[in-house]
Write a structure and sequence with these properties.
This protein is an all-beta fold and 113 residues long. It contains no helices and eight strands. Strands 1-2-3-4-5-6-7-8 form an eight-stranded antiparallel barrel.
Length: 113
């Protein structure tokens, strides 16, 4: 896979597990410096969130935290598999897990705008 550049890319949700907190109104704004990828996210069910990740080939190893619109503080981890669509847009398929007492797991799919 060619080197992926996340810098100044914007993503939104296209599919999420029922126990996920993000919805289609949540916007993710990514930045990248070398193999370090970060994102701020907000909107919809999320007041504010932050992602930090390490990029290796076609995988992002992510940690995230957010404050939801109902004032819950949530943290989690995810492995995002990166693919590029025919139109050149980036797609992220996440397998994620909440880092709380529930350790609930799920999947999400995001698409670059």
């Amino acid at each position: 896979m060619a080197t992926i550049d996340f810098n100044n890319k914007t993503f939104s949700l296209i599919d999420n597990s029922e126990n996920g907190k993000v919805n289609a109104d949540t916007i993710f704004e990514y930045k990248q410096q070398g193999h370090v990828v970060t994102a701020d996210y907000y909107g919809g069910t999320v007041t504010y969130g932050k992602i930090i990740a390490i990029l290796k080939d076609d995988i992002l190893d992510m940690r995230y935290q957010c404050i939801t619109s109902d004032n819950q503080l949530k943290t989690g981890k995810a492995i995002a598999t990166i693919s590029t669509l025919e139109n050149g847009k980036i797609k992220l398929a996440l397998n994620w897990e909440w880092l709380d007492d529930s350790n609930a797991k799920g999947t999400s799919v995001y698409l670059e705008h």
